[in-house]
Amino acid sequence: MNLKPKANPKPAPKPKLQRLIKSKNKIALIDGGAVVEFIILPKDRFCAGTVLVGRIESAASVPNAYFVTLPEHQTGFLQSTKKLDIGAKVLVIVSKEAHGKKYAKLTTTLPSASFSDEQKKLFKEAFAHAAKPLVLFVPDIIRELQSTYDIGEIVTDDMPRKTDVFASEGLQDVLADALSPLVTTKEGVRLFIEKTEAFWAIDVDSGAAADITLTEINLNAAKEIARQIRLKNLSGQIVIDFISSPKNRLSGEVVAALKQAVKTDPTPTLVAGVTPLGH
After folding, report:
1. DSSP-assigned beta bridge partners for residue 52
2. Which end of the chain has the lower number of beta carbons within 10 A, N or C?
3. Radius of gyration of the chain from Cα atoms?
4. In the chain, alpha helices (H)
């Protein structure tokens, strides 16, 4: 019997991206001549992936949960797997950025895929010698995007130029539209997108849409919602209030259309389905 060794599977090709444009704390991802995603980096808060030495400040009301003093007079929230002493040093990574009145969420688990053994060793050595809260690592967002996408061109404000790169590329108005909570599709359907403390809420309104059924309005909204999730870089739990009535419940066709539309986003999105309330 002649057994051939199995060939190593080729890694899946990275999705192509036409351009990446960065100006200060703003990044625009462009494909097909249009902006597909904006990324706004926090100016005065630690971004996700930052590795820090913190100090346990106080215990929270939840068992084994603590408020942690971080560098630059910031505070984080850590849910630990064990009891920690008040005042003790702790090596943490930001898993979710601070938002509004909510502190940054921290974890003590460093992802193996993100850091080499050598990096982890250096972190532990720095942690052992740290006398106060300290920043050990800040992620390079462009390098991370390059590991995700096959990018044709990168333009940044590090290059000599007379005007802001977003202004020279005509992206200021596009960004303003993307940050607006009100979105109107070309068919006239309106979306109201709002951030609450617990989740993102998206309300669908027929707006100026005429001569189309509720299902057609919801199908139109589903496609635009998928585009807005990526464009606005929405994350966490998202609740969508589609249009329905006692005689016209939300159809499975709309849910299927939303599931198909979010597949174009490299960041996986789970569409859980319809709640008893029709959301």
Report:
1. 92, 135
2. N
3. 23
4. 117-129, 141-148, 165-168, 172-179, 214-231, 252-261
* The model's pTM: 0.71
Residue 23 in tokens = 């100006």
Q: Which amino acid is at 115?
A: F
* Distance set, CA 52 to CA 81, 90, 133 (Å): 18, 8, 7
Q: Which residues, listed in sequence order, are joined to residue 248 by a DSSP beta bridge?
A: 245
Residue pLDDT tens, the chain, 279 long: 445 555 566 777 888 999 999 988 899 999 988 899 998 887 778 988 999 999 999 999 999 999 999 999 999 999 999 999 999 999 999 998 887 788 999 999 988 878 899 999 999 999 999 999 999 999 988 988 998 899 999 998 876 666 788 988 899 998 998 889 999 988 889 999 998 888 999 999 988 877 778 888 889 999 999 999 999 888 889 999 988 766 666 778 888 999 999 998 888 889 987 776 655
